[in-house]
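Propose amino acids for all 106 sites.
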């Protein structure tokens, strides 16, 4: 009986070591896998909308719905096409909600 207990303890000690069969991927491999996954996703989006992709690598850093033409109203600058103001211009045009005259004296 004692021999069986010692054998079980020896097996448990041997199994408690680090598992070297599963390795963490290198940063380069992860980056390549991420790029491939992003391209595949954008190609699926294009296929669902009925557009063909001549250069799928172009979709790595550009959204599939973006035609890349700055003269296009959907892809261009909204300030040019719709006359929208920047956030800074909107803040400047906003009426002053708080002035120093409204504060009570210390």
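Proposal:
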């Amino acid at each position: 009986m004692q021999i069986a207990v010692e054998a079980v303890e020896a097996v448990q000690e041997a199994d408690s070591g680090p598992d070297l069969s599963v390795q963490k991927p290198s940063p380069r491999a992860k980056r390549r896998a991420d790029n491939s996954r992003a391209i595949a996703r954008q190609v699926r989006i294009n296929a669902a909308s009925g557009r063909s992709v001549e250069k799928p690598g172009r979709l790595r850093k550009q959204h599939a719905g973006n035609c890349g033409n700055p003269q296009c109203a959907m892809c261009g600058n909204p300030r040019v096409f719709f006359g929208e103001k920047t956030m800074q211009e909107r803040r400047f045009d906003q009426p002053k909600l708080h002035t120093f005259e409204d504060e009570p004296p210390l």
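The chain has a mean pLDDT of 77. The helical segments are 2-15, 27-48, 78-82, 87-93.
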